[in-house]
Amino acid sequence: MRLPTFIKGVHPNDYKHFTCTKLIETLPLPDHVFISLQQHIGAPCTVVVEKGQEIKTGQVVGSSDAYVSSPVHSSITGKVKDIGTFVHPVGGKVQMVYIQRTADEDQWELMPAISDWQSASIDRLNQRVRAAGIVGLGGAAFPTHVKLAPPKDKTIDSFILNGCECEPFLTADHRAMVEQTDKILAGMAIIMKILGVKDGFIGIENNKPDAIETMRAAVRQGEYNFKVVSLQVKYPQGAEKMLIQSVLKRQVPTGGLPMDVGTVVNNIGTAIAVANAVITGKALVERIVTVTGDGINEPKNVLARIGTPFQDILNHCGGLKEEAIQVFMGGPMMGMAQYNLQVPIVKATSGIVCTAEKGQPAERAMPCIRCGTCVSACPMFLLPTRIARLSEMGHTAESEDLGIMNCIECGSCSFVCPSQIPLVQWIRLGKLQVGEMKRKEKEAA
Amino acid sequence: MEAEKKVPEQSAKQSGENVSSQPTMVKKTKPKKDPRAKLYKPERMLIMLSSPHLGTVDNVPKIMWTVIIALIPAVVMSIFYFGWLSIWMITACVSAALATEALINRMKGESFTIKDGSAVITGLLLALTLPPAFPITSGILGTIFAIGIGKHIFGGLGYNIFNPALLGRAFLQASFPVAITTWTTPRTLVDAVSAATPLGGFKFEKISTAFIDLLYGNTGGCLGETSAIVIIAGGLFLIIRKYADWRIPVSYLSTVFILGGLFWLFNRVDYPSPWFHMFSGGLMLGAFFMATDMVTSPITPRGSWIFGIGAGVLLVVIRLFGALPEGVMYSILLMNAMTPLINRYTRPKFFGEPRA
Hints:
The complex is a heterodimer.
Chain A: E1 24-26, E2 32-36, E3 46-47, E4 54-55, E5 60-63, E6 72-73, E7 78-87, E8 93-101, H1 122-131, H2 144-147, E9 158-163, H3 172-179, H4 181-195, E10 199-205, H5 209-221, E11 226-231, H6 240-248, E12 263-267, H7 268-280, E13 286-292, E14 300-305, H8 310-316, E15 326-329, E16 336-337, E17 351-355, H9 373-377, H10 384-393, H11 396-401, H12 412-416, H13 423-444
Chain B: H1 2-5, H2 35-39, H3 60-82, H4 84-108, H5 118-128, H6 136-151, H7 164-175, H8 198-205, H9 211-216, H10 228-240, H11 247-266, H12 274-279, H13 283-290, H14 301-321, H15 328-345
Helix pairs in contact in B: 3-4, 3-5, 3-10, 4-5, 4-6, 5-6, 5-7, 6-7, 7-15, 10-13, 11-13, 11-14, 14-15
């Protein structure tokens, strides 16, 4: 039987053997953390603490009144040493709160636990999701409370939990599914209650048979009516639109959102965070991070406090090998290369991949030979080579006509390109050009 | 976000940054040292590249050399049938192609591209489409034209509009019309008196050639075109390796078969059978190795179908109604010219785009 999947896509090696059998290890508390005020899509937070202030674990350090935003919390008990701009792992400099740890053990500032969540009001639950600072932990970091409150005119009939983890190397969600199964299912049940939907699906790629087995057993045991869907191993199976196509056979319209086809997708890590926030009252201050690759001495899955510098985590994993030359935040397909290992992990850091070999793109790209491999790889059915060429030439309007804004930057086209053309990089540039053009048009109008 | 605004460079950006020498904390009033600089010493320089950080093992030279490997059976058969004539012609054309490529690289002041194999393919394909007794000097001239005008005038590899080998052959056809239609008998064909090609024989004298001879290539014809069976084998190898788009040979060959078949059903005396169409002349070589040339064929799946069908129709029309017995070359060259237009009008529907 053929497993469900989406159309096109690519098959990178998964490299998951480094960490897929390693238990999640809790890191010792870091000596200091850097809490970024911009860890989500939407309005950045404003600082609500002062320099020198004593601070508890789980205490709010930044918040915003904007709807599409999410508060940030201190992840250790300590003292605010400084507030300033520091290098952010996704590039550029962002305002952060620098906290030094003063206590050996956490003193938690907890929100009251909602143990009777089955009977709690939907508003109360979603407010908790917001107050706990929960964002999509798969990598996009979109505020979850916004996703869970769709506009009234959209009918939501199903919810998909994303356990694909299609990025090579990463195993954080995989290990969570094996080790924290009950918490994930509880979080999923809470999310489905907030959404008011009956149909719950858990999509898992077929390269994690133990996770599928554990989840299926737990679903049966807990008498949940969720359906665990085993999916074909293909990149980018975990991209929201691809996953909806695979599981529900629905195509999110161009420029639309999952709610336009009546569904919402959340990541495994998000479900855990929701369960923590509602059942124990803990804000989102820690997450599971896969530290892996052939450039690290002891690949591990770790539970790390948000704001811990990369270097601390790498040191805990035996440090970088002598030959390591690249470090990314996230998986190798969409992750960001880092030059400064003092950057802190943020809510969206699903993994730290250290490699000893230089990846794409090559030293010198060859000319495009119009082989069309990128066209047969693009899961959004675009013409990457044409679009890349157009943005290279600065033909912004034409690249927009060819659907440049639909690109999800999954990297499949650059991955397969035999000429090693940095197609995604050109497309990102083209998107900026289109944004600029739109802004100018708006100003002129 | 800042990194994305930079114009991507073709070459890798090897910008490692040193933490202690470059304070990472900036305040508006005056620059202050990053407190972390005191806490850590930078361990090493790291390479900054844009994602994705993985790539397939495929590259352009690998594709080109695989095509050459797929052509080896045809070369072997051609040597078997035509002996030294074939060896000399292939050697001369391939060397001329490499020499021209190197010379033009030198003139353009770019690095040498002879290793990528594309020039070898051009020389080899051109040689395989020439008659066995064709003058070697003319063959060299055609190769120089193919590489110089067919490929480099347009900007080199990836930028040419027409298949260089076919353009070279078109040049030879125009320059040496007699020599390019003078055929030699394969040395294994003992009882043949006429050395006409099967297509020429049918067109002008209504002589049919035995199907089995067409299949193995035991007929008059160009060096590498006569043996359909080894060409199909090489072509299938390319398709399995995904270095050739299966849609093009399938649509090209089936169009020829169906359209040729319709004419044959209509008039069995004046028109050859579809099987004869399929296995005579350069159709197999053209369908598997020339029409599928990546650079000059469409990039969209629908475009590939249109390309193959268009070439098939042109071929049948030229063979049956044109002045020439063979139409593979012109049918592909004409469709090459159409390729940019086909690409433009066959954009696939976006993911989630409503079907209009």
